[in-house]
Specification:
The protein is built from eight helices and seven strands; from the N terminus they run ααββββαββαααααβ. A three-stranded antiparallel β-sheet has the order 1-2-3. Strands 4-7 form a two-stranded antiparallel sheet.
Length: 287
């Protein structure tokens, strides 16, 4: 998060504190001050647009939108706009797996290869020469468990969090279903990675459902998160593209699409595993 975005979040946090004890929050001085601050952030071009929603367990305290949803067209941003949530799909995926763990359908300490045979015999980098790309691999000292993948301690990485993964070129015949060899033995330390890809695949295998179907039935529907999905419904039109990125229609994957490479940019943006899918979007509305 850059400083400007962090400043906006701070402003909203201060506004939340001021609004919390106000009887008529939406028309209060605190609400007007928050309007002024957020509108000012757009006018000074700190951000193209912003939607803010403040609630407590009883009511909406504040809700407003400023700026544009699409820089290229100038389409106004509205309070019910859809946004890509990027790596916020990770906690959703982890909640899904924890539900299955609560049901006793798998255990935190189970070796993940029990459910995903492709994880058997994982290899770890013994050495890597950044100049030549020459590398030596060795067997992992222990199997990676379900917990390791839930907590990003599996040894996996991303090309943008590891120079080794960025520069690594597999030899002919080498296959790495989740991106590459391990940087370290499972459980040694934390490293932000494609581990949640494995978590998503575990959800699919254990539940027998596609990940999006599981999310919809067991998480989104019970919570009335009707505007959260991998695919933008046609009736909702285009999602917001504040950074002049591709329109929402470009994010909708065909039903027969094939698996993307785990290291591809689209895969990294989606930040969830299993079958390929576009970045998840969510609405700025509440139930």
């Amino acid at each position: 998060m850059n400083r400007k975005a962090a400043g906006i979040v701070f402003m909203i946090g201060v506004g939340m504190t001021a609004l919390a004890g106000t009887a008529s929050a939406q028309n209060s001085p605190a609400s007007a001050a928050l309007d002024t601050s957020l509108r000012g952030a757009v006018e000074s071009k700190d951000v193209p647009g912003v939607v803010a929603l403040v609630i407590d367990r009883e009511r909406v305290l504040y809700q407003s939108a400023f700026g544009v949803a699409d820089v290229a067209t100038g389409r106004p941003l509205t309070a019910d706009a859809l946004f890509r949530i990027a790596s916020m799909t990770k906690p959703v995926t982890s909640v899904a797996l924890m539900q299955l763990i609560e049901q006793g359908r798998l255990g935190l300490d189970d070796p993940a290869e029990k459910y995903l045979p492709e994880l058997a015999g994982l290899k770890v980098f013994e050495s890597f020469d950044a100049t030549t790309g020459a590398h030596v691999l060795r067997p992992a000292s222990r199997p990676a468990t379900v917990k390791h993948f839930l907590t990003h301690t599996s040894g996996l990485a991303y090309p943008f969090t590891s120079a080794i993964w960025r520069d690594f070129k597999p030899r002919a015949g080498e296959k790495y279903p989740f991106g590459g060899p391990l940087l370290f033995d499972p459980g040694e330390r934390w490293h932000y990675s494609t581990s949640t890809d494995v978590v998503g695949r575990l959800v699919e295998v254990v539940s027998g459902q596609k990940l999006e179907d599981y999310f919809r039935q067991h998480i989104f529907a019970p919570l009335k998160m009707d505007d959260t999905s991998y695919n933008v419904p046609r009736e909702r039109g285009r999602a917001s593209s504040p950074n002049n990125s591709a329109p929402a229609s470009a994010w909708t994957a065909p039903s027969n699409c094939r698996r993307r490479s785990p290291g591809s940019p689209a895969r990294r943006r989606a930040a969830v595993a299993a079958s390929p899918r576009p970045p998840m979007t969510t609405g700025a509305s509440c139930a």
